[in-house]
Specification:
21 strands, alpha+beta
Length: 505
């Protein structure tokens, strides 16, 4: 028998706009169907960081839940297709590899395809693992079609995400949220009041004197973490011992070449640069460690290597890698930068926002904010941050670069035991233990491990008994099929022009 609670939330206040605030407002208003008042308070004077323009495939699920049509969204948000990330100069200078979205090849006899590739590699196969990826074959040719519906096709296992303008996306979601009844307030919060009885947040007061009371608060205030950090005193756990980069400088430029359906990550002496192609411009940035590179040096490197004319002035953004000790305390949950920050190497910033929102929906509270639910929310979120942290650290640790103090530190640094165990397991027989809850699955780990030059000592022992598959012949057939099919696929720019052309307003 179910009992109705008279403690249902009546008023949710979201502090902060940007991607985090408006993604939260759009999804909560969609889920709650007008049965709970939602107010979002932001200040145009404070602004947002707004450089996150590359995503990973789960963003499609989030948009679908909101009823967003893909082509309309891409058109409105200056979007393009992303099939993966090309990493340049990471393993060694003048070396590159591709982290694709989707699977490699196809599985045989209940054995994942990469096991066959690893065995062939040890018998002299010169082709990298990416050569058996449908996403890579399209990416390197600047082609795109959606994944094949026929499961027998090698292109059915492909996946994709987007590049888009984060500020346009926030505005797009803002219009959806306001249509769903979200109240929008432009103002600066001057004071946050907590209850004496239990420490719950009771209200926020603007510098204009207006007071807003709420039952539940979502902190989307960015790095300053006004509610969770400053008001509820949740400590920040610093991960800069393993993730040295703590600054970025960003600039937008015009296009000089074809709009590629992938992100580029180009390592340099103390960090890396991104290139993110939107329909009408290129997003450029330089992520670096202030211990090893000054802001002036970073800006000079960026401006001397960009292509096209600058559309904006270079802007330096400071950050600290890490997470809050808790993500939900009392009647406040942090979403976005107020919860933590991981550099955008694998385009996870918007994903962490998305997952926080959907987890909030799953563990949606009443006015009591039961501790059992908040603890479980915090446990799952901590696991997610640490999994992504390990995946990012892998890129720095698994390198042969020793041409700068930065790379020598990364190569020799002591890594978290969770990552050490995973690398050791793979290094023996090529095994990977991936939990269902983890964001990056086997194919992603394999792309980076092998791309960074990490190979197991031997093929998995089970492969000695898999004689019925002619490995060399089969791999050659897969590679030929992928290559020939990709040649026939329409160009990425043609796909955008025909389906979702962006017209600047």
């Amino acid at each position: 028998m179910l009992f109705m609670s008279d403690n249902s939330l009546e008023h949710i206040i979201i502090v902060g706009g940007g991607s985090a605030g408006w993604m939260t407002a759009a999804m909560l208003s969609h889920q709650l169907q007008g049965n709970c008042q939602i107010t979002l308070i932001e200040s145009e004077q404070i602004g947002t960081i707004g450089v996150g323009e590359a995503t990973i495939p789960p963003i499609k699920v989030f948009n679908n839940l909101l009823g967003i049509q893909e082509n309309e969204f891409l058109s409105q948000c200056n979007g393009s297709i992303k099939l993966g990330i090309q990493f340049e100069n990471w393993h060694q200078t003048s070396h590159q590899y591709f982290h694709q979205f989707g699977r490699f090849g196809t599985d045989f006899d209940y054995i994942p395809f990469p096991y066959y590739w690893l065995k062939s590699k040890q018998h002299g196969n010169p082709l990298g693992l990416q050569e058996y990826s449908s996403a890579w074959h399209m990416a390197k040719r600047n082609k795109f079609i959606p994944p094949a519906q026929d499961k027998r096709s090698l292109f059915s296992g492909m996946d994709y995400a987007y590049h888009f303008d984060a500020s346009l996306y926030a505005n797009y979601l803002k219009s959806l949220a306001i249509k769903n009844g979200v109240k929008h307030i432009d103002g600066i919060i001057d004071k946050v009041k907590t209850r004496d009885s239990d420490g719950f947040i009771e209200s926020v007061t603007l510098d204009s004197g207006e007071l807003y009371q709420g039952d539940f608060f979502v902190d989307c205030s960015g790095i300053r973490s006004l509610l969770l950090g400053q008001t509820l005193n949740v400590d920040f756990i610093d991960w800069s011992e393993h993730l040295l980069c703590d600054r970025a400088v960003a600039v937008q430029t015009t296009h000089q070449s074809a709009i590629a359906p992938y992100t580029r990550s180009i390592a340099h002496e103390a960090g890396w640069q991104w290139r993110i192609p939107l329909q009408t411009r290129m997003g450029n940035g330089n992520v670096y460690s202030s211990q090893f590179m000054s802001d002036e040096q970073a800006t000079d490197i960026l401006t001397s290597t960009i292509e096209g004319e600058m559309l904006t002035e270079p802007r330096v953004i400071k950050f600290k890698p890490g997470r809050r000790q808790e993500f939900w305390r009392k009647n406040c949950v942090a979403v976005g930068l107020s919860a933590g920050f991981l550099e955008p190497l694998e385009s996870t910033s918007l994903h962490l926002i998305q997952r926080a929102i959907m987890r909030l929906v799953s563990y949606f509270p009443d006015k009591r904010c039961d501790l059992v639910n908040t603890q479980e929310y915090n446990r799952i979120t901590q696991d997610e941050y640490e999994h992504i942290r390990d995946f990012i650290i892998l890129h720095y640790k698994a390198t042969e670069r020793d041409d700068s103090e930065f790379w020598r530190y990364c190569k020799d640094m002591v890594i978290p035991e969770s990552l050490n165990q995973r690398m050791a397991l793979f290094g023996q027989d090529g095994h990977l233990l991936i939990k269902d809850s983890e964001l990056f699955k086997q194919d992603s780990w394999l792309a980076v491990l092998t791309g960074q030059g990490i190979l197991p000592k031997q093929a998995a022992p089970i492969m000695k008994f898999k004689q019925q598959v002619e490995i060399e012949q089969t791999l050659n057939a897969i590679h030929k099929n992928l290559s020939q099919t990709a040649e026939k696929v329409p160009g990425h720019e043609m796909y955008l022009a025909q389906n979702c052309r962006h017209t600047p307003k």
